[in-house]
Design goal:
The complex is a heterodimer of chains A (about 110) and B (about 300). Chain A is an alpha/beta fold and about 110 residues long. Chain A has four helices and five strands, in the order E-H-E-H-E-H-E-E-H. A five-stranded mixed β-sheet of chain A has the order 1-3-2-4-5. The radius of gyration of chain B is 21 Å and the shape is elongated.
Chain lengths: ~110, ~300
């Protein structure tokens, strides 16, 4: 149910930039502990916002181009895209309530 | 959440709070742990923990606290994700106001830890996540072949510098004193790292760049000489500040904001105890936090037993 999709340097454009709905992209890496703390929240949100927001994950170790393009210098970073542009930049672990606020703002 | 009554409320889900929870739950006290972010505490950013007894190969900070969490839950510790906004004392009861509603308890164990202190210089907030970092274990590889600075001279700072040195072309440790404070074994590693440099007696005055960090404005406090250092990033590990906002005016704090306790982890207010990094004179280690948690739990139990004949 509403699981985030894994996107890569090659599929980012088609999956995220051209998405018809807002997208939340979780930039992460396997060894990053705060990333592993964020992951379950993103999965819960993916279920709660299913159909309204697209949820994607980018492993920045395997996909340096997208991390570079969006100036990701800390992980986890969550970017919320609307109409192909980042509208919200969330660095580090934040409580779920705060993530929901950012998503609702993007939807509003 | 309606007003829920507990024997013990533990504030904070790091090693101190989780250890306290293991003890209070095993004492069959109705216990709940309130955490504002996620279980783990400050240690999850440290990567490998090498000095917690019983783990000769080391253990990840997150793995260690996840196991403490599992252990506490096994004995019946409840947990809630919410932020504590206020602590009120009403006769013998303590009322904890949170972002998720009010809870009451006979005793409270404050294990809310501390947060990394900011430098408080121009550019720090603007470049947060764009060159200003707080978790080298997470972000180190993003600085591959780049020059990066670390501010601070304690264990946290030097461990961050060592982590970054695996990836960066050069790591510059910027410290306001002329010698490190870190544990000797950590210092030895730092001085043996060829791509690590030290700027002594130096403080940062501003962080500058375009979209990302490009340079630091620094000042040598011994000579008052100002200069610029080109870097792609800066990791701040200068110290920490205790999370005790909600305790102001309720329990005595020292001038740095840490909670004043006796050797039983008791504050001046009966039934309010504190454990771990949040208490005065903490050595800020996982092992001492866990120890504090146990002490606080045992004296919380004693307090409840004597006061409420529980």
């Amino acid at each position: 149910m509403g699981k985030p999709i894994a996107v890569t340097d090659d599929t980012f454009e088609a999956e995220v930039i051209k998405a018809k709905i807002p997208a939340l992209v979780d930039f992460w890496a396997p060894w990053c502990s705060p990333c592993r703390m964020v992951a379950p929240l993103v999965e819960e949100l993916a279920t709660e916002y299913e159909g309204k927001v697209l949820f994607a994950k980018v492993d920045v170790d395997e996909n340096p181009k997208m991390a570079n393009k969006y100036g990701i210098m800390s992980i986890p970073t969550l970017l919320i895209f609307k109409g192909g542009n980042p509208v919200s930049h969330i660095v580090g672990f934040r409580p779920k309530s705060e993530l929901k606020k950012s998503l609702d703002a993007a939807l509003g | 959440m309606p007003d829920q009554e507990y024997d013990v409320i533990i504030i904070g889900g790091g090693p101190a709070g989780l250890s306290a929870g293991i003890y209070t739950a095993r004492a069959r006290l109705k216990s709940v742990l309130i955490e504002k972010m996620a279980t783990g505490g400050a240690i999850v950013n440290a990567g490998e923990v090498e000095n917690y007894p019983g783990f000769p190969k080391g253990i990840g900070g997150l793995e260690l606290t996840q196991q403490m969490d599992e252990q506490a839950k096994k004995f019946g510790l409840e947990s809630i994700i919410a932020e504590v906004t206020e602590l009120e004392i009403k006769e013998d009861k303590k009322i904890i106001k949170t972002s998720g509603g009010d809870l009451t308890a006979k005793a409270v164990i404050v294990a809310s830890g501390s947060e990394r202190a900011k430098l408080g210089v121009p550019g720090e907030d603007k470049y947060m996540g764009k060159g200003v970092g707080y978790c080298a274990v997470c972000d180190g590889f993003l600085y591959r072949d780049k020059v990066v600075a670390v501010v601070g001279g304690g264990n946290a700072a030097i461990n961050e510098a060592l982590e970054l040195a695996k990836f960066a072309s050069k790591v510059i440790v910027i410290y306001r004193r002329n010698e490190l404070r870190a544990t000797k074994i950590v210092q030895e590693r730092a001085f043996a790292t060829p791509n690590m440099e030290f700027m002594w007696n130096t403080v940062i005055e501003a962080i500058e760049g375009d979209d990302l960090v490009r340079r630091l404005r620094v000042c040598n406090v011994a000579t008052d000489e100002k200069s610029a250092v080109d870097v792609s990033g800066v990791f701040v590990a200068t110290g920490s500040k205790p999370n005790t906002e909600f305790l102001k005016g309720i329990v005595p704090l020292d001038e740095t904001g840490t909670v004043i306790v006796n050797e039983k982890m008791e504050t001046a207010v009966p039934g309010i105890l504190a454990a771990g990094d949040v208490r005065v004179n903490s050595i800020r280690q996982v092992v001492s936090a866990a120890g504090d948690g146990a002490v606080a739990a045992i004296y919380a139990e004693k307090y409840i037993h004597e006061k409420f004949k529980h």
